[in-house]
Structure formats: C-alpha cells, structure tokens
Amino acid sequence: MLQSMTGYGEAEGVLDGVSYAIELKAVNNRYLKTIIKLPDAAAYLEDDIDKELRRGLSRGTINCVLRLKSVSANALFELDETALRSVVAQLNQISSSVGVPGKIDLANLLNLPGMVRPVLPDEEAAARIRELAVKLTREAVERLKRMREVEGKFLEADLMGNCDAMAQELEVIRGRSGSVVGEYAKRLRRRVDELLAEAKLKLDEETLAREVAILADRSDISEEITRLDAHVQQFRQICRMEGQAGRRLDFLSQEMLREANTMASKAADAQIARSVVDIKCLIERLKEQIQNVE
Q1: pLDDT tens digits, residue range 102-137?
Q2: Helix (H/G/I), strand (E/B), else coil: 173
Q3: What are the contacts of 44-50 at 24+ separation with CB within 8 A?
Q4: What is the Cα–Cα distance from 185 to 192, expressed in whole angstroms?
Q5: Residue 265 to residue 219: CA distance in whole angstroms
Q6: Separation CA 79–CA 196 (nearest Å)
C-alpha cells in the first residue's frame, strides 16, 4: 500500500508540572531531511528526537517542533539578577554623570541577551524528560504515518486510473499496428502507379516488396508495446506492495517514457501517433503524482 510523503502528527504529555507537545509536519523530499526546533532548555534532546524520526520515516522533509508550557506555578525561565542589577547600576551612573535624568524600564531590559535564562533540569530530571520526548515523538510519528496512509489510498487510486487509461491506449495501438504495413503497401503501390502511368512503365514487384519490408522493420513497435505493457503491470504490482515505493515507481515511469518516445519516433500512422501522445501525457501525470509517494 502506498503512503504519501505529506502529513501531520502530534503528541502531548505532562511531566513535573510542564506540558511537552511534539508537532510534526511532513512535505515532499527525494530523501529524508529533519528540521528540529527545540527550546533552549530542551536542546539536548535533538539527537534523540532525530534518531526516532529516522527510525520511523524514510522520505520527506520532516519539520519537528517541541513546545513547553508550565501547567503549575513553577517557572520555565529565571532572571539573571546579578546581570540585571549591573546593567541598572551602569545606567544610573551614566544618567548621573551626564546630568540627564532617565527612566529605566525593566521590561525592556529583559530583552537584552542573557537576562532571561531557561531553567535547566538536573541529570535525573533530564533523563525523565528524554524518555518522555522519545515516547511523544514515537506517538507523533505513528499518527503522521496513519495520515500518510489515508492520503496514500487516494494517490494509489489516481495512479491506478492512469495505468488503466494507458492500458486502453496500448490496446488501440496493438490493434492498429497490425494493419499499418498493409495500408502503407497499398498507398505506395497506388502512388507509384500514378507516377509511372504516364511513362507506361511497370512497377517491379520485388522492389515494391523490398520497400514495404524496410518500412515494416523500421516501424515495428511490437517490442515497445510488450515492454510498456509489462511496465504498466509492474507499476500496479509495486503500488500494492508494502514498504517504500516512490523511488522504484519513479524509475519505472522513466522507463515507460523511454518506450513511449521510441514508439513515437517509429510510428508511421496518425492514429498510433495520437495514442502515443495520450500515453505520454498519462506518464507525465504518473511522474507528477509519484513525487508525493514515500
């Protein structure tokens, strides 16, 4: 079953009066890329969260955000009182020395670097927080994967529909290709007879047969039809298999396009050419949708 690369997952838990919320957002990417944003107090969790993301996911850009919120009277941040007193003293000293009275706004002083520091947990608390963060990340990944599976069903239905349409066009081409050479021989004979009628010459049947044989060899697309049909069947099988399918489907769509281009260059019939154009359009739709498959 296919899985989409886009999705959303979240999980939340409370520990020691602090709420921890993990939020995951996934978008398309050829490889796996993780972008993790953590508060300063939880920066040490980055490696653990990254490992958990890579354990559960294989492709896509994963944006991970951890948010902390106190649900008790305990503060998550503390003031550097020594640094704050030092700044206030310096400002008062400067105000007195230049003779310009000024009003100090403590709220603005808190925006200075280093005035507000996160409350860092001790070793025992850090271990409990790490355990919770890994657990929440695992839960968020599972919810993300479930959402990917739901979207994957819609992707699979669309891809299968394009494969069905391609198979129909192949049947049209297969039925038409058998009569192309015979019609060409008739047109060639008629045209040559018209040109030679005035000269009262007779067409050499051996020469005509040789020209028809050359065209038959050059315009024979039976191998391309067989290979493209096999690619379509394999594409369907991969869509129904478990595990990663995006890269295999991407490679297979390239092979489909190669066969279609060969058929287009060899086609000696307008109806076949139209069907090949339709097939190439369907392949482009496949390629576009495959970019969303994990």
Answers
A1: 677 666 766 667 666 666 677 888 888 899 999 999
A2: helix
A3: 44/126, 44/130, 45/129, 45/130, 45/133, 48/130, 48/133, 48/134, 48/137, 49/22, 49/133, 49/134, 49/137
A4: 11
A5: 9
A6: 105
